[in-house]
From TrEMBL:
<dbReference type="Pfam" id="PF09414">
    <property type="entry name" value="RNA_ligase"/>
</dbReference>
<dbReference type="Pfam" id="PF21189">
    <property type="entry name" value="PHA02142"/>
</dbReference>
<dbReference type="InterPro" id="IPR012646">
    <property type="entry name" value="RNA_ligase_DRB0094"/>
</dbReference>
<dbReference type="GO" id="GO:0016874">
    <property type="term" value="F:ligase activity"/>
</dbReference>
<protein>
    <submittedName>
        <fullName>DRB0094 family RNA ligase</fullName>
    </submittedName>
</protein>
<dbReference type="InterPro" id="IPR021122">
    <property type="entry name" value="RNA_ligase_dom_REL/Rnl2"/>
</dbReference>
<feature type="domain" description="RNA ligase">
    <location>
        <begin position="181"/>
        <end position="371"/>
    </location>
</feature>
<keyword id="KW-0436">Ligase</keyword>
Length: 381
């Protein structure tokens, strides 16, 4: 499921900001946003735009943000970031429902069918990014940013994307999962990378794009197909000649040979990090690039391996793994969104301020992230 960026949420608290008389804070789920004083009261619904929403500049309703518009992916618009105003963190944009007919229209329609109370519940389960032409802002790697020109193939649909939900959107998780054990790992800030191997006898192999083996000699192995993907794109092998690190790092780690020898239909997912990736926030030395495994997707079973099995497999394949803090019952890690955000503050592999932490349930598929607020503010995100 792709992340819901624009949602209707209920305000659970409002607080004045010391020294400010025109603004105050409003809380929706685990998020705190700064709003115009009096715009919201407790229990009121608002339309919440999560950080990393990209608002289209041509929509006149965003004109008030125009002085901070950016160019992104060939478009002009506003990227919602974390901000600090008068000492208070503001994350996301909260707009009164009545300002957005795209939303009130849906609510009224639901109300006609189900009554007000039920309609309010239902509308909170929907997402409005499509209706409002909001996109998820993503860093564009210079080398893979224009991915349409690199490869026409998206990452194979039978591989799960590496996105993680933010803990602020899961305020009930601390009660519901408190006795369950999670792996806590460091979130590294590079680029998502997936390498896959699909056996020739797998029914999935027919869904892979055709290859020109003269240009892509490594892709066709005797017992199956090998591929290297960024977050969204199956990258063609010859694209490596352009200086893109994905295939280079895969080749330095002899991944095609290792996965073919293992002879299992798997997608190994990790973070591509190094001197030229995403501003090298982790602080790796010049020339260093590598792949730090954080998950393994079982292509035939269509589920993730348990985190312990992922660690063992990374070791067996001679690959680095993202740092693992340990395995703990959730209640020992944190009991609230605020507590988890506190715990996310810390340092990474090379002792620089880390992006955050990722919690993965010991039995596989459920996981989520906590991003350090001080990291977001420091990097202007
Ligand atoms: P974001 O970068 O905020 O979109 O968060 C999700 C991304 O975090 C995933 O797509 C991964 O590329 C990346 N990531 C970095 N470290 C980890 C980790 N330890 N576990 C899972 N994902 C990670
Ligand atoms: Mn990232």
């Amino acid at each position: 499921m792709s992340r819901r960026l624009v949602t209707v949420r209920k305000v659970s608290d409002t607080q004045p900001i010391r020294g400010a008389d025109r603004i105050e804070t409003a809380v929706v789920d685990g998020w705190q946003c700064i709003v115009k004083k009096g715009d919201f009261h407790i229990g009121q619904l608002g339309v919440f735009f999560e950080i990393d929403s990209f608002l289209p500049g041509e929509d006149p309703r965003w004109a008030f943000l125009e002085s901070n518009f950016i160019n992104w992916n060939g478009q002009r618009g506003f990227r919602i970031k974390s901000q600090k105003m008068r000492g208070s963190v503001s994350q996301g944009l909260l707009i009164p429902l009545g300002d957005l007919p795209e939303v009130t229209g849906v609510l009224e329609e639901l109300e006609g069918k189900h009554g007000r109370e039920e309609a309010e519940k239902l509308v909170q389960g929907l997402s409005f990014e499509a209706a409002l032409k909001v996109q998820k802002w993503e860093a564009m790697d210079n080398k893979t940013g224009g991915w349409n020109e690199i490869s026409k193939a998206p990452m194979p649909a039978f591989i799960r994307k590496t996105d993680q939900e933010r803990c602020q959107n899961l305020p009930h998780v601390f009660e519901e999962w408190k006795d369950e054990t999670f792996q806590e790992s460091t979130k590294m800030d590079g680029s998502s990378m997936t390498v896959y191997f699909v056996r020739n006898d797998s029914d999935k192999v027919q869904h892979l794009p055709e290859v020109d083996t003269a240009k892509q000699p490594t892709v066709v192995q005797s017992n199956g197909r090998f591929g290297v993907c960024s977050r969204n794109v199956d990258i063609t092998e010859d694209y490596g000649d352009n200086g893109s690190q994905y295939w280079k790092v895969a080749s330095n780690n002899q991944l095609a040979g290792k996965l073919s020898k293992l002879n299992r239909s798997l997608a190994v997912q990790g973070e591509l990090c190094g001197a030229t990736i995403q501003g090298n926030v982790e602080g790796f030395p010049v020339g260093f690039h590598d792949f730090f495994v954080f998950a393994v997707w079982d292509i035939d079973a269509q589920k993730y391996l348990a985190p312990q099995d992922t660690e063992a497999l990374a070791k067996q394949l001679g690959l680095r793994h993202v740092p693992v803090v340990g395995y703990f019952p959730l209640r020992e890690i944190a009991t609230s969104v605020q507590g988890l955000l506190q715990r996310a503050e810390g340092v990474g592999l090379n002792k620089r301020k880390r992006e955050g932490i990722v919690l993965k349930h010991v039995r596989g598929d459920f996981s989520f992230k906590a991003i350090s607020n001080s990291y977001l503010l420091k990097h202007g995100e």
